[in-house]
Target: Flagellar biosynthesis protein FlhF
Amino acid sequence: MLKVKMDLGSDAVILSTRKVRKKGIKGLFSKPMTEILAAVDDDIISRRRSPEPEKIKSAVSEDKTRIDLLENRLNRIETMIKNMYDAQKNEALSVSERVLKYENPKIETSRISAINRLNARPYENPYMLFTKKLSESEVEPEVINALVNNIRHSVGDSDSYEEIMAVAEKKVKEMLGQPQTIRLRDDGKPTVVLFVGPTGVGKTTTLAKLAAEYTLNQRKKIAFISADTYRIAAVEQLKTYAEILNVPVSVIYTPSEIREAIAEFQDKDLILVDTAGRSHNNVAQFAELKALVNNAEADEIYLLLSCGVSRSACREILKHYSFLKDFKLLFTKYDEVNVPGIILNARYATGKPLSYITVGQSVPDDIEVANVENIARSIL
Model:
């Protein structure tokens, strides 16, 4: 009702409403929309557009009076501010003169110059301010030190914060590197992609987003394999996505079954394997995951991390997944954080390339290739 009144005025009324869906495949994945038919009486509009001449004259007179009063008040305020500024300026100059009256006249000029430089910038050391900024962005101290050293190598002990930040953006982008997406094989065999990561990071939803991209937009033949039989709803969720996208799905219960499942889909372009979320504190579960990784012999492995994870938790996760020899970093829930410092930390700690980021729950829209420039600006 509020939106209707904003468009048509306070006298508008709603005549009817109905639920509708967006057209095309994307409509299957999106929430239904509400279509509203609203109207307003033409007589009311015409009366509003044609007010009486006497009322117009009265309104104009009142408006002119208000404008005159406002102008007078603004002029008085402007005069007061100017007087206060002049008084403060004169007092500051007087204090500077008293402080700088040294017996040796040769050092007076240099003292004045030094004090002016300190007064010109609101901080003592631009590198300290830069370090504080990165720390607030959840960047690890080790990464901050590396960045500061790189910047000093380029600009030295610059006292310009703007210059330091300009160089810092380039250095952060260099640290993040160029993202790498799924590379399909060109030998006629299916590309096997494995998704691993801690519990609750969003592996199944991310897998469905990528599947929709390659099925609907790139016209590739896709298959799902689910190794997540720990969560009750995990397999059903994947089967639902498979049914919507019209792709086959195979469920395995032991690591040894993965090879047979892959062999069933040799006519596909891409096989996406969903694994169970593993707590980095559960040794037995990690042993099973290692066996699955070894048996799958996947072409690509994606380690999923949530952008909202703490620095200490991220260190622990990366430590426990260090058995992965070759993988790419995929970050979820990018839309839920203000400063994605975790991305720079993980990239620096592992040296592995970035790939995708997810920016919401909507399938298939809310996934994109990591934009290094945007991430660098968000961190800084």
About this structure: The chain is about 50% helix and 15% strand. The longest strand covers residues 13-20. The radius of gyration is 32 Å. The longest helix spans residues 53-99.
